[in-house]
Design a protein that fits this description.
By secondary structure, this protein is an alpha/beta fold. Helix content is 43%, strand content 20%. The longest helix is centred in the N-terminal third of the chain and has 27 residues. It starts with a strand and ends with a helix.
Length: 312
């Protein structure tokens, strides 16, 4: 393991990566979630760094952890150093891309309900491309998980990345016919009186790091007065929200590119003729343009082609 020496001892690169993660998140807890370690492990690592350097790097408070002036300077320099190292590694991978694995990072729901059902077709057309699919539901992993392509929501800014649009963010409410039947509601009735949707249990997506379109915004878009309370199940994982909808537990806001196939197959019913289309599309990110590697360029073009078909 690479080590950085100071007058009091040895500081490992792992300690410094933990420090940079905590600095970026301004929170030991959020850094721990990103790194898949405990909060106490992050706190202990930062304390060891502070002891090694003989200076405080963070001011701890109830709302989180704020970098000291020295901490800001160190974070900036260390992050820049790691950027150089990461770039060198990426370049080496690109130079040896002929036998490399193409890695794409997408959300769990996009992987499950959109990418995987289509992937067999890509493999038949391009059997020589070896593909690895990573799932992540936080933008904090972008650029740090070893992927070649990422598919997040929003125009950014995404400093250090080249962006192309993947598909529009188009939403509408969905549920099972069984749920509607249990509550004595016909789909056509909801299309005529969308406010009746409050008669159904609602499924709420509340992600920690990403602000997603929610039910209050949907009511506002439809020109309806939202009730004070919208009882239902809350989850930070859209895959769980969608599974709950498929199980008849409630009505969910469905992203068209994910739920369109489920509606077409009859597993879910679209509850409104009107779609909400935001001004923040889903995008595909790459670290450079022209994109590194023929396989990555090929797969990105295929993603865009497939997304065009899913919008019909």
């Amino acid at each position: 393991m690479t080590s950085f020496h100071d007058r009091d001892g040895v500081v490992t690169d792992r300690w410094l990566r933990v420090f940079v993660a905590a600095a970026d998140a301004s929170s030991f807890t959020h850094a721990a979630e990103e790194l898949a370690v405990t909060q106490s492990a992050v706190s202990h690592t930062v304390s060891r760094l502070e002891k090694a350097f003989g200076v405080a790097l963070f001011d701890r408070n109830r709302s989180g952890a704020t970098l000291t002036e020295v901490g800001e300077q160190l974070a900036e320099r260390v992050a820049a150093g790691f950027a150089v190292v990461d770039t060198a590694v990426d370049q080496l991978r690109a130079e040896n891309a002929s036998d490399a694995v193409l890695t794409v990072s997408v959300s769990t729901s996009l992987a499950t309900h959109w990418l995987m059902p289509r992937l067999a077709g890509f493999k038949r057309a391009h059997p020589g491309v070896e593909l690895r699919c990573l799932t992540s539901d936080t933008d904090a992993a972008i650029g740090r998980d070893g992927a070649d392509l990422w598919v997040p929501l929003g125009r950014g800014p995404w400093p250090g990345f080249h962006r192309v649009d993947f598909c529009a963010e188009e939403l509408y409410p969905v549920a099972t016919r069984e749920l509607l039947s249990d509550h004595g509601i016909e789909p056509v009735a909801l299309a005529a009186e969308p406010g009746r949707i409050v008669e159904l249990p609602m499924l709420h997506l509340e992600e920690r790091y990403n602000a997603r379109f929610d039910w209050l915004q949907w009511f506002d878009y439809m020109g309806l007065d939202a009730p004070r309370r919208l009882p239902g199940v809350i989850s930070n994982d859209y895959s769980l929200i969608l599974q709950a909808a498929l199980d008849g537990q409630g009505v969910a806001l469905g992203w068209h590119h994910i739920v369109g196939g489920l509606v077409e197959s009859g597993r879910l019913v679209r509850l409104s003729n009107r779609s909400v289309t935001t001004d923040e599309p889903f995008v595909i990110l790459a670290k450079s343009e022209p994109i590194d590697g023929a396989d990555a360029a090929l797969f990105r073009a295929w993603l865009i082609e497939q997304a065009g078909g899913s919008q019909n």
